[in-house]
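Annotated sample (chain length 1210).
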Amino acid sequence: MSTSNSKSTKKSSNWSKLFKATRAQTRNSSSLPPSTSHKPIHTAGQSSPAFRKPPAPRASVSGSLSEDSSPPSPSGSSPLQRVATTDLNLDSPEFMLAGVFGQQDSPETIIFEESTSSGKGSQIQSPELLRIKNATLIKLIERVTYPAYPDPKYLLAFLLTYRSFTTGAEILDLLEKRWNCEPHSGARTPDFESKFVQRIRLRVLNVVKVWISKHTYDFRDDIELTKRVIAFLDDVVAKDMRGSADGLKKSLERRLEAEDSREIHLDEKKMELAPTPKVPPMKRGALTLLDMNPLEVARQITLIEFRLYNKCRPWEFLGLAWTRNAGQDAPNVHKMIHWSTRMSLWVATEILRGKTAKKKIAVISMFIKIAKYLRKLNNFNGLMEIMAGFENSAVHRLRPYWDAVPKAHMELFENVKDIMSNSKNFAAFRTFLKQVDPPCIPYIGMYLTDLTFMEEGIPDNVGDLINFSKRWKVAAVIQDIQQYQQAPYHLHKLGVIQDYLTNAQALDNETMYKISLECMPRGAAKELTLRELEEQQKSKGVDSSQLADQERDSEMDYGELDGVKDNPFYQGDSSENILLDSNARKDSDPSTSSSGSDTSVRGASLPKLIERLTGVKPPSAEFLESFLLMWSTFATPKEIFQLLKLRYNVPLPKNPTSEILSKYVAKVQFPIQLRVFNLLKVWQEKYPRDLTSDPELLALFRELVSFIQEDSKMLGTRAERVLESLEEKETVKLPALPPVDPKISASLVDLSSIELVQQLTIMEQHKFQQLTTANLERYLRLGPEKESDLHAWAVQRQQDMKLWFMWQIVMLRTKEMRAKLIETLLTTAIELLEFRNYFSASYVLAALQSPEVTSLKKSWALLPKGAPPKMFALRTVSEHLRKHATFYKHILPLDSRFSLPCIPPMHIYLNALQEIYDTLPDYIGENSNLINFEKAKRLSALLSQIHKFQSKPFGNLVASPRPAAVLHNCTHNLQSYERFVDKVLELQAAEAGDVVARRATMNMIRRETAATSSTSPGTGSPASRFNRTGSFKIPLSPPPQPDPAAVEAALAETMLSCVPQVCSSITEAADIQESVDESSNAMFSNTVPLTDIGLKRFRTRCPEAVDELEVWSRDDPDGEVLGWPSTISLNVCNAPTCVFVVFELRSITKARLSKVMREVEFYKVNALIQQEVETRVVVLTRSISPELASVARNLQILCVAESVRPKMPC
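Output written by the structure step:
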């Protein structure tokens, strides 16, 4: 197997493991965090529907979602078919809904485009013409699931552009609410159920189906969204349409595996007819362009570019994503843009590298031939790359060389030039493109230009409504791009040419222009012939092929500049003002201030740093970010803005001519002024809170931007936008903290893991979002005393919360209650890790792993069998949460490191920052007068991570008053600290059985505590007071070591679902998980036929079952019950008025009850049970919890249990 195939297989197996892990999680957990829990959400005024038995005429069992694909009903026609042919009067009160979807259409919620056929000013009423112009998100979802008629064009436009105004998780939440719609009147009439609800659910399923089949990349790029949609299908859809839910899950898994490979599927028959590649001849020297066949070069360029073009995702074209974060928001589009830019530079480079005029002309002719074949191959993107290379100023000015190109080639070039002309917005090319048949690679720059005009010229919102008219236009462009991605090129890959193309080196524009000047000096085109130019070059000994390695010279001497004597930006580089790496250039031209080596700056004076930031060349993103994050550690706001204003006022030449002045302004003055403005613009866009939190800094910022606005006509409009954006910049909207209700009496043991995860995340997120760069800088420079709030939250809170959770466990009255709370906190820790709230996870894990808790052997013994191995497996995670290096490497997933909401363990970030700050000096150099910028870069790398985490807040959290009351001022209970110490020692002594030692130690602690209180009463935090007694603790016995096999299984289960990077071999862990699933399935399997004891219990409980029990068996080739082909065997007993289906189970869970219902439904359909015959379900089991007994009664299942076990946390 090839390497690529092996990688594809490995990725596909990982998707299978994800689906298995998700199914296992669904079976084994009834409480999931918000990212994976999908119980129906009901708004105010909306009643929660009771769990009903699925109706007998189910929706599609085979997974098909069309309205005419339901199983036939006894009357001969499908209920859904009858719904599809029945008109709906949506204005009828019967079909009015409660909740968010109950709002009627109005100009405040939805506006349609006006009809061109029904008169001026009238709105479109015909479904065929109905087209949304502006609407709220609720109305957009309502229309995409509209029961009256489907609108596939609108659905396609919605799924292509939804990322520009919402998220996939929010869409799923609204689809779930739409599925569980309730009538406004509260009465669910038969028409409401059969006509209205069924049709809405079909629309919802159709949305999910199209989303999965046409936009699989959304789930491939977002694992959390994949888990959400699987949970939606399992927990919501499967209750009513099991077959459709299973079919969609299979489809999603299959398409995700295919999406991983992202291979271009070729037709084998067409590949057999593909032309034979033209291999270049073998030679001793290096392969050159002129050694290759132009047709084959065009083919290989086309194969490379189609591979890049095919990988471009639709969401990368939204919101100018390719222009943000150095292209990281649109990686595939950015790669194609980078390839096209490099190819155009390479074309110009190959022409200029020709040693003689003959070689240069031959290369030009070669590229014209390649362009001809690119035109025949319909590769217009490659064609434009060659055109751009020809239009490069360094090549275009060589008129004598162009005049010597053969006439036939020039005619061909002019023809291609007319097609690719950008006049009238590529009107000629657009017309030509409509006549082209695939395969084809259009010029992607044309589409990017269209999208840029749309994004900058059309607002995203009109008032409070989403401007969907703009999304229609954007979707049309994306569809044009997509249509050419479907048909691949059937050509053979030729590695030698593709390697040559991908490794070809291209020169920069400045170097090429210097070579061009050496080939033909200014004005020589009118004075010298081509032969004279050649002779002149030979006399000078000029070889244009070697000029690329020479340094760039100044193109023009602008003369002496006015007022640069005392200007710090026009002093040459020296060891007294800048230190560079040994491989960096140590001198720079003060007049141009190139910043090409800015990343090599080790130390510099403040003027030299700003000079490098605002040179003619743009600074690197890393250099600019490091400066903006760390400037306050080595300068004041006044110093920064004084130098920026001085830098903006670029000195002019003394007594210049008009020509020299215009060129100086264009090539020196304006680029520097533009760099100063861009620095301010980036500052405002990326770090607005640093500006708004410092009044002095904000005033100086406004002053300089206003000065630029008045001074520069070219930058005035942009400066005005910066000021407006600064006014409109809003802080991140966070879920509000609920008011604490003193009437609520609850304790930690009463809360579920979901409530804990939600409340802890809301609390920590509010603190985390309040952090600014200034807070962190003051913390490093002045110490924790000056930034007590930051220290109290990031460092002290971690210790206090750990102690508080220990307090809550230890102070419970019975070991049963302690076991219940430990199990809840263990589940909470795992869910916090999956939810990416690593800060809260760190102190919850620390509390569970503390000696005070782990020594409670009797409490741990009451936990379920899998709990101690999970705790043991989480030790590795806990270790990684203690250091920044291991946290960043092992805990944060590489593919979603900064793309998902996250709260990092801030105490380890502060420790890492403090270590760098204390270790490295502030200033370096011979006189220690240069700012240590290496230190600034290392500190800014950590601060940049914090800013990226802050830019992705949690937005789907719902605060609840009960957990808020429990966790409010959670450390205040520790005032009775001595009582806690007594309780710990009492429990420890009880474990050890040494009462004498316990009493002696308690007396010693009381004396020490009294002495401490008398000397410094009330000082220190609970955690610090707790640490004072550490030397008096009785040695704690370690917790019992779990079985190694159980540890491996728990490690696989925990790490596979939460932190995959912790496992050394993810494949091996998944295999262990699968074996655990198989063993657990045996525990919940049905006994067929019944045992003698089971038969006796059934006869006693159901005396009306007079017939003998029979074993009914039937194959399930479509996997309707289990999701894969299997044989279903059931115990069946006939009675005069009913049929009993009997299950004998060793143990029972919610997941097993769900399987029971699927098996019963399968039996009813395949055994041809008449509707008037009642089917009764009996489950014989050893024990059942009250919660499961209630669920069984709602499902109309008769549970016969030997005992009712106490309720335990999930």
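Annotation: The CA atoms of residues 420 and 429 lie 6 Å apart.
Annotation: The mean pLDDT is 74.
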